[in-house]
Each structure stands twice: as structure tokens, then as C-alpha cells.
């Protein structure tokens, strides 16, 4: 028995060196998998994961692709894979609104949905409504009315407010309180936010 044979794990027929080589090759295989098809209730259902799969998102009018595990949220995909960090991760459990983006013009919590489920929809983030040189009217109203302190809630508030004002151009303060109740500001800048809303809608002083 030569030196190499002596290193073979018992019963494997492989030397330690062979084993290491195969291990290296296995790790080099891409971990992106096609969906499996399961028969459920008489229908074929595509099942993804737990391996990464190719996800294509339409964000701010551009198609963006990344290999993601199906468990990845839309918020994490935007921030970690597409470098769009305007949407903030605060509660990460769909309660504060800091991560608000639009899905087909409708505000949603990006931390509360999976990136894989956002495929085929039009996603708009805070980066998609303006440029640093050309602020959106809602951003300008927030700025002019001192409607932020730490700013963590602000991008989500701007996205929710813009959608609300476009739908309710003559809203009352009471309407706005209800309509924006899904967004929270821990710094308590509601007086400034209400002033911004008054500027945007012409609503009367409360
Ligand atoms: S971070 Fe998504 S709702 Fe709070
Ligand atoms: S400005 Fe700090 S949470 Fe709203």
C-alpha cells in the first residue's frame, strides 16, 4: 500500500487528496436553482428555494437582476443587492412605514413582502421620484416645514404622503391623520409633517 492509498477514508475508494478536490469542485458549482414542480391539489405548483434563484425586479423604470434566496425581502433586495438605500429598515416587521415604496403606484411596506413576489410589478423607491438637484414637491414641503429630525422615517413618509396627496388633493387634516397612520415618526415631527401637508393641499389650520 502506497502513502496515498493509506490516506483513503475507509470504504470510500477515494484518497484524502481526491476527496478535497471533489469538495472544492462542489463548492464551485453555482447555487442558483430552477424551481421544483410539485403536484398540489391536482395542479403543478412551482416551488423555489432554499437555494438562490434569479430574481428580476422593475425598479424606478430599470430592470434589475440578482441571485437571491426566496426568503429575501423586497427591502433587503433593494438595499443589499441594488444599492438603493433610501428606503430605511427600522422595525423590519411591517409596522412603522420607514421602508415604504410603491408597488404599481400603491404604497407598501418593502420589509413586509418578498422580493420574489415583487417580480412583474412596477416598484418605485424614493430614489425614483426626484434627483438631488430637482426635489419632488413633497420632499420640498417636508424640507421647508422642518418635518424631520433624525430623518429615518422621512423617505417612507414622503412616499406615503405623495401617494396620499395625489389621491386626496383636498384632504382634511383628519383624512391625512387616517391616511398616513401606517407611518410613524419616533422623533415626533408631526407638527412639521402637518404643516407640509397644509402646504401641499391647502388644508385649513386645525
Ligand atoms: S421597516 Fe418596514 S415597516 Fe418598519
Ligand atoms: S424624523 Fe426621526 S423618526 Fe421621524
Secondary structure: elements and pairs:
Layout: H1 3-6, H2 16-28, E1 36-40, E2 43-47, E3 53-59, E4 62-68, H3 74-81, E5 100-103, E6 106-109, E7 122-124, H4 137-144, H5 154-167, H6 173-179, H7 190-201
Parallel strand pairs: 3-7
Antiparallel strand pairs: 1-2, 3-4, 5-6, 5-7
Helix pairs in contact: 4-7
One FE2/S2 (inorganic) cluster binds at residues 148-154, 185-187, 189.
Keywords for this entry:
binds FE2/S2 (inorganic) cluster, about 210 residues, 5-stranded mixed β-sheet, DNA polymerase, domain 1, Ubiquitin-like (UB roll), alpha+beta
**Helix segment tally:** 7
**Fraction in beta strands:** 15-25%
Span of the ends, CA to CA: 93 Å
Which CATH architecture of the domain at 56-128 would you pick? Roll
Rounded mean pLDDT is 87
What structural category do the secondary elements indicate?
alpha+beta
Unreliably modeled segments: 4-14, 18-30
| Distinct small molecules | FE2/S2 (inorganic) cluster
Briefly note the CATH topology name of the domain at 56-128: Ubiquitin-like (UB roll)
